[in-house]
């Protein structure tokens, strides 16, 4: 029941109306018997969003495109990992002190841990915000990283930051990797026929992961599956980053199976 004691959580983004955050966090609050509600706010400015957190005593917030970088200067403290990545996707309001974290980083690595990351050649396609979180997560697990990206300068800068090799996008077909992770928006609805990695470079021994989760089976994952690769969909990372947020906010781990089934059964 929503009453005067209900605690408020939210996501800030633009757009934000498509967010699956409200569906899974509200299901998790209900499941854990926590008197809280999570809403989506489509905002214009990071500064105004942070002021709203302070004014309304919003207890925690997810931060999404395009505010993950610009929100940082308005917070009181930034976790060292988020600082290294250069992006915050989670705000925790600790008695008025606003702390910034990046849960995308650990979430990107979590689904790969069962396959082993240390010493494996991991090709990251892309060099945007998601790529930075993924690359720092893989670097922390001692993966041998290759970065490839359409804009070479951005790709080279990320490669330098995580001590990785850079291979230009035009030479992607020559890449030999144990793990391939698409961190670009290629393949996302509505351009579902696009693929970010050359099919001819996919081999059965590879683990192929996509951060895109609309659709769940991207062209990359479909093609990789046909080639006999092991595949990991973008929902795995999405749920892992949301679960880490929930734990930072409440001190309790949510039921991630419930989060996944809630998304899959909600339009
Ligand atoms: P971003 O910072 O804008 O970066 C976009 C990346 O995609 C850049 O590397 C860009 O290359 C590349 N790219 C975009 N369109 C391209 C095209 N047509 N051809 C070649 N490269 C292209 O975006 P982001 O925040 O990293 O988000 C990327 C995707 O990750 C989005 O689909 C987002 O929804 C998803 N995501 C998922 C999760 C999850 O939990 N599953 C978490 C975060 C993000 P250039 O550098 O050349 O522009």
Describe the structure.
By secondary structure, the chain is α/β, with parallel strands linked by helices. The protein has two domains: 7-102 and 237-264, Rossmann fold (3-Layer(aba) Sandwich); 106-233, NAD(P)-binding Rossmann-like Domain (Rossmann fold, 3-Layer(aba) Sandwich), CATH 3.40.50.720. 34% of the residues lie in helices and 20% in strands. It has nine helices and twelve strands. The strands form two sheets. It has a six-stranded mixed β-sheet with strand order 2-1-3-5-6-4, sandwiched between helices. The protein has a six-stranded parallel β-sheet with strand order 9-8-7-10-11-12, with helices on both faces. Strand 1, helix 1 (21-32) and strand 2 (36-42) form a beta-alpha-beta unit. Helix 1 crosses helix 9 (256-264). The protein binds NADP nicotinamide-adenine-dinucleotide phosphate.
Show the helix and strand layout.
Layout: E1 7-13, H1 21-32, E2 36-42, H2 46-56, E3 60-63, E4 77-78, H3 80-85, E5 90-94, E6 97-101, H4 104-109, E7 121-125, H5 129-140, E8 144-148, H6 152-161, E9 165-166, E10 179-182, E11 207-210, H7 219-226, E12 230-232, H8 234-250, H9 256-264
Parallel strand pairs: 1-2, 1-3, 4-6, 7-8, 7-10, 8-9, 10-11, 11-12
Antiparallel strand pairs: 3-5, 5-6
Helix pairs in contact: 1-9
This protein binds NADP nicotinamide-adenine-dinucleotide phosphate (NAP).
